[in-house]
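ok so for the tutorial part 2 we go from a plain amino acid sequence to predicted C-alpha cells. step 1 is just haveing the sequence, like this:
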Amino acid sequence: MVPACQVPVTVGPVQTNTPRRREYAVRRKIHATTVVRTTVTDPALHPLLSSRFSPLQFDPAYLIDERRVELLLEAARWAPSAGNSQPWAFFTARRETTAHERVVPYLARSSARWAPQASLLVVAMAHRSIADTDWSYSEFADYDLGQAVAHLTFQAHAMGFACRQFRAFDLDALTSELHPAPGWEIVSMVAVGRPTATGSPERERRSITDLRTAPWSNS
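step 2 — the prediction. this is what the C-alpha cells look like for a chain of 219 residues:
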C-alpha cells in the first residue's frame, strides 16, 4: 500500500452557544488527534470511492429525468439487509415538480442555501417498527438504510452526479407533510445533481490506525 501524504489537522475554536454546536465541538475535540488531511489514496482503491465528494454547489439548469431516478433506486434496491428485510423507502423529489415543492419549504436555512439547486432531493426513510405494536420491524433498519443510500450514492457518482447527505430540515414538519405510515420514520435526505465544482484535493479523514484502535483509546 502506498502511504498517504498526511498532515495533522489543527482544529480551530468552535462557537458553543447552541446544543448542536456544543455537540460538534466535543466530537471535533475527540478526533483532533486522529484526523488527517489526505492528499493521496491507495491506488488500489476504486476510483468511485477515491473521487467521491459532497458538493455544496449543483448545476441549477440541469434536470434529471425519471429513468435516471429509477436507476438510482435500482442500485439502492440491491443493497444487503439483515434477513433480507429491506427496511428502506424513498420519497423522490425532482426539481420543478410538485414533489419538490412539497419538500423545499422544510429545509433549514443552512441547507436551503444550496439544496434546492440539486436536480433531485431524496427523503430516506427506515421501517423501524410494526404498526400498532411495540415490536421492531428490524433493529438494523437504520444500518441497512445507510447501506441502501451508499449504493445509491455510488451509482449516482458512476452516472456523473454527486450526492450530499444532510439532516438540516424540520423533521416533524416534513413528517407531517409526507405522512409516512406508522412504523416508518424519516431519517435523512440526499441531494443529487451535477456538481459545478470539483472536490478539494485535501480531505479530512481519520487514519486507518485510529479506525482499529479508537474504541480502546483513552480519548
